[in-house]
Amino acid sequence: MNTRQLLRSIPTSSKPRISSSIRCISSSSITAQIPNSTATSSNNAAGPSLTSSQGRTTHFGFKEVPEEQKETLVGSVFSSVASSYDVMNDAMSLGIHRIWKDSFVSSMLPKLPPSLHQNPGTSPIEVKEPFKCLDVAGGTGDIALRILDRAREKFGSRDIQVEIVDLNQGMLDEGRKRVAKTLYYNTPQITFTHGNAQALPTHIADSSIDLYTIAFGIRNCTSLPAVLSEAYRVLKPGGRIGVLEFGKVSNPLFKEIYRQYSFQFIPIMGKILAGDSESYQYLVESIEKFPSQPEFAQLMRNAGFQTGQLREGKGGAWTDYTNGIATAWTGVKA
């Protein structure tokens, strides 16, 4: 069954009309439960088993679906858009997503601990464990390559390691194609794993990761608390988490313009550029359903992360980009 058939098979009675008075959806309706199944890594067993979700529903865009179906539906969307994903990102954001991602990675790597150094007056050289990053839902390699480039160009690091985990094989395939054209190809600096953010593959041990990133992916997960709990589990004490996702625009006029653009034009662009308007309709609906900036920051705190104050900007738990169209949340494992 293709994406269109899957999307059309879902009852549409719960889908609100798109108009100039689109209502914001309360985050209380989006705190989904943990599904009863998970994809496993192609080379590794999956992590903790997920709780049964029989009889429970969650959102898929504006539609209510059984929890156990959401993973399949989301997978179908990203299988459909994988080959055109980067082109559509450029078209939808007018290229601004590149600036957001550059700023996000720079904020997550303001400095890099050296992994190879010689203490004064000692010999031989002391080799420390490489700085390890986990980029979740990062199949195309967009964030991972930025991390590696920044480490190399800013800090001269050649041994930082990034593992990409993604539930969608099509997105991973696109990432492998991209990496094959870079100097990181066939090096231990970047690896790809098929796995679930809600139950990471078991080879990713507790307290083993220095930096965890997830960009424009967490809103597609069934359970935000489960994703954050797994991130907390695998991070080392003092390790950092960075979540880049679409936020809520605060300026009323800009907010309305942005909504009209999202709902009226993005699905049309999806049809023209990718031959698939339904998948992009889901993507803009999923943005509407995601929690507000303070609500998501509180979810991070609930998972155990130390964040800044529940406000935007310096000393705050999040940073808004382009009036809150995109937002970066950060936290530290105590």
Automatic annotation (TrEMBL):
<keyword id="KW-0949">S-adenosyl-L-methionine</keyword>
<keyword id="KW-0808">Transferase</keyword>
<dbReference type="InterPro" id="IPR029063">
    <property type="entry name" value="SAM-dependent_MTases_sf"/>
</dbReference>
<comment type="pathway">
    <text>Cofactor biosynthesis; ubiquinone biosynthesis.</text>
</comment>
<dbReference type="GO" id="GO:0031314">
    <property type="term" value="C:extrinsic component of mitochondrial inner membrane"/>
</dbReference>
<feature type="binding site">
    <location>
        <position position="140"/>
    </location>
    <ligand>
        <name>S-adenosyl-L-methionine</name>
    </ligand>
</feature>
<dbReference type="GO" id="GO:0032259">
    <property type="term" value="P:methylation"/>
</dbReference>
<comment type="subunit">
    <text>Component of a multi-subunit COQ enzyme complex, composed of at least COQ3, COQ4, COQ5, COQ6, COQ7 and COQ9.</text>
</comment>
<keyword id="KW-0496">Mitochondrion</keyword>
<protein>
    <recommendedName>
        <fullName>2-methoxy-6-polyprenyl-1,4-benzoquinol methylase, mitochondrial</fullName>
        <ecNumber>2.1.1.201</ecNumber>
    </recommendedName>
</protein>
<keyword id="KW-0489">Methyltransferase</keyword>
<comment type="similarity">
    <text>Belongs to the class I-like SAM-binding methyltransferase superfamily. MenG/UbiE family.</text>
</comment>
<dbReference type="Pfam" id="PF01209">
    <property type="entry name" value="Ubie_methyltran"/>
</dbReference>
<dbReference type="InterPro" id="IPR004033">
    <property type="entry name" value="UbiE/COQ5_MeTrFase"/>
</dbReference>
<feature type="binding site">
    <location>
        <begin position="196"/>
        <end position="197"/>
    </location>
    <ligand>
        <name>S-adenosyl-L-methionine</name>
    </ligand>
</feature>
<feature type="binding site">
    <location>
        <position position="166"/>
    </location>
    <ligand>
        <name>S-adenosyl-L-methionine</name>
    </ligand>
</feature>
<keyword id="KW-0472">Membrane</keyword>
<keyword id="KW-0831">Ubiquinone biosynthesis</keyword>
<dbReference type="GO" id="GO:0008425">
    <property type="term" value="F:2-methoxy-6-polyprenyl-1,4-benzoquinol methyltransferase activity"/>
</dbReference>
<feature type="region of interest" description="Disordered">
    <location>
        <begin position="36"/>
        <end position="57"/>
    </location>
</feature>
<keyword id="KW-0830">Ubiquinone</keyword>
<comment type="function">
    <text>Methyltransferase required for the conversion of 2-polyprenyl-6-methoxy-1,4-benzoquinol (DDMQH2) to 2-polyprenyl-3-methyl-6-methoxy-1,4-benzoquinol (DMQH2).</text>
</comment>
<keyword id="KW-0999">Mitochondrion inner membrane</keyword>
<dbReference type="InterPro" id="IPR023576">
    <property type="entry name" value="UbiE/COQ5_MeTrFase_CS"/>
</dbReference>
